[in-house]
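Protein Record: Sequence and Backbone Structure Tokens
======================================================

Structure line: whole-number tokens from a learned vocabulary of local backbone shapes, matched to residues.

Purpose: to set a sequence beside its fold so the mapping can be learned.

___
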Amino acid sequence: MPDSTGVFTLPRWQPMKWLVDPGRQVSSDIRHALVGSLFGTMSIFIGGVINTLLVAALITWHLPRKQFFFWLALECMICVARVGVLTSAKRRALAGLPTHTDLHVLLSLVWAFSVGLGTFLSITSGDWLAAALACLSSAAMIGGICFRNFGAPRMTGLMILLALGPCCLGAIVAGEPLFLLTLVQLPVYVVSMTSASFRMNAMLVATMESEQESAHRARHDSLTGLLNRASLLTEIRRSGESKDQALRRLALFYLDLDGFKQVNDIHGHGGGDELLQHVAERMRANVPAGACVARIGGDEFVIVLSDEQRDSVRLLADQLLRDISAPYRLSNGAEVTVGVSVGIAHIRPDGHTADAMLGIADRALYMAKARGKGTFHFAEAN
């Protein structure tokens, strides 16, 4: 499963982008999570490092030839480099810094090539003990490659090919007729394991999309897509948490539509729901970036702004009154109009709970409605 300890950078090199692409349209969050999964499952990674180094060392001890000393040295350098890049990437991800994802993917491919190289050297050495040990080792690595890297199935397929492909080449060079059976076995094995990696990736993506959708539904109003009441209170608390909160003010706009019931009565609940969606769109279009917009009741909305001055708050209130009160065209061709009343709490968050701040804005809304609706009432509190 994806690593949840930090955000890992997406690859920048075009070949690496293609290799880690899941092969389907996914959200940016899922894409980052899939890349993060390539840095996870440390037990499999450590097991693979120990296995490849141990096998290379044993074969080199058994056959002390130049090509095997070269292979052992190559394995050592690759493992040291991979451990260094992996450790650095995890540390940088936790610190919010760019990670060397391209280098990590490249080293993974080089490692798979080294596994295949050792297998080829062992098969062509004429020593069948070394050949058997190397072939068993490379075959064992495939399971780890699939389970550790199925977040990037294309990369997994290439790693499997690099690790096992040299077995076929070695069988041809060795000239042992019985060993040529690998020319049939290995392609089937490579295809089946790569296909399994793609299926596992599809299952992972489907699970992550389902989790994202569930999390979104839990936090948002199903009709308008705005935040719901529980999420609003969470955002108010979060907006109020700051080292310099004594110097900051939050602006809470509590909005209630005037004349919404008549629209519902005339055009039915479908028309009323459509109107609420249009109102939500206009609110989103008017508020500045970073503002929270929520629907907390039938036709009640709340907007939360941080660090806004009194004058800018008043300007936004005037703009909301004007834009929300403009006519709406429903899908049935009818033109409808509603008004809006706004209560504004402009307060310092320290010393106030989220519910208390919302209550101040609610009382300000009551005062606005008492003045004849279609206006706003401004309440300030320390």
Observations:
- The first strand starts at residue 250 and ends at 258.
- Strands lie at 250-258, 292-295, 300-306, 328-329, 335-336, 339-347, 376-381.
